[in-house]
């Protein structure tokens, strides 16, 4: 897949978490099946963006840079396992459910490490190199907005939803508009 395709998938998946948050807040419930179903396109788009960053060596070509992106790919894959599992068995609560569910906050926090690695590597140009770090700020800023505005307060939910949609869309756009790291051609 090309950066254009992976970035577009990231942009298409970006709003799903925010939409799910607002639906759940308006309903006053926490429906795990709904969260999982909305999480699938969100996580797949995010996974595509991380795969593109990996292909571009955006965090550097060292073992550490590639390792950081590999860990992120594993965390997002586990998050996707939770999405599919919770969509079918929303209240399973077994060990697989709990471990894969933990990959969601872990992947959000680990995005800060991805962001720092991308900035340090300097492989992305201009504003693009700061976007992964801005994405990584989503969980800390969402928690902070909950503390300042009240956990579950609609203003905190809307802030978190909008920040998520805008930053992940920007990540997809940054990927989509970055030149391919190499071209594959078949000479006949």
UniProtKB/TrEMBL annotation:
<feature type="transmembrane region" description="Helical">
    <location>
        <begin position="131"/>
        <end position="149"/>
    </location>
</feature>
<feature type="transmembrane region" description="Helical">
    <location>
        <begin position="102"/>
        <end position="119"/>
    </location>
</feature>
<keyword id="KW-0812">Transmembrane</keyword>
<feature type="transmembrane region" description="Helical">
    <location>
        <begin position="155"/>
        <end position="175"/>
    </location>
</feature>
<feature type="transmembrane region" description="Helical">
    <location>
        <begin position="66"/>
        <end position="82"/>
    </location>
</feature>
<protein>
    <recommendedName>
        <fullName>TspO and MBR related proteins</fullName>
    </recommendedName>
</protein>
<keyword id="KW-0472">Membrane</keyword>
<feature type="transmembrane region" description="Helical">
    <location>
        <begin position="34"/>
        <end position="54"/>
    </location>
</feature>
<keyword id="KW-1133">Transmembrane helix</keyword>
